[in-house]
Amino acid sequence: MRLAAQHKIILIISPSVLADARHYLTTLFPAHLPKLDALLAIAAVEIAADPTAEEVSAHRALVRDFKDVPVVLAAARAHVGYLVSTDADPDRHG
Fold first, then answer.
1. How far apart are the C-alpha atoms of 22 and 61, rounded to whole Å?
2. What are the tens digits of pLDDT across the range 26-79?
């Protein structure tokens, strides 16, 4: 986030991921929501389109957790260099 605020990288985010982040902050850490808005106002940000329901369905086996398919498809379509997640995949550490 700091690198995006310094314009050293471009933060690429889809509308659904941004909505999820806003919901998470609003629910659990409401005092931090203004910080997210401030970051988005100054950072190098690009909005990647969410995939359609048909695209998600067609690629349902792309990743282990179906709910992550839209995120991975949006990232792939945007040709991101790195995909960063806070998703704790218990199988990954097993």
1. 27
2. 999 999 999 999 999 999 999 999 999 999 999 999 998 899 999 999 999 999
Backbone angles phi and psi of 11, in degrees to 5: -85, 120
Q: 36-71 burial string, b = 16+ CB within 10 Å, else e?
A: beeebeebeeeebebbeeeebeebeeeeeeeeebbb
Tokens 């695209």 sit on residue:
55
What number of other Cβ atoms are within 10 A of residue 89's Cβ?
Answer: 12
Q: Which DSSP symbol is given to 12?
A: E
Tokens 């659990």 correspond to what residue? Answer: 28
Of 72, 20, 65, 84, nearest in space to 48 by CA: 72
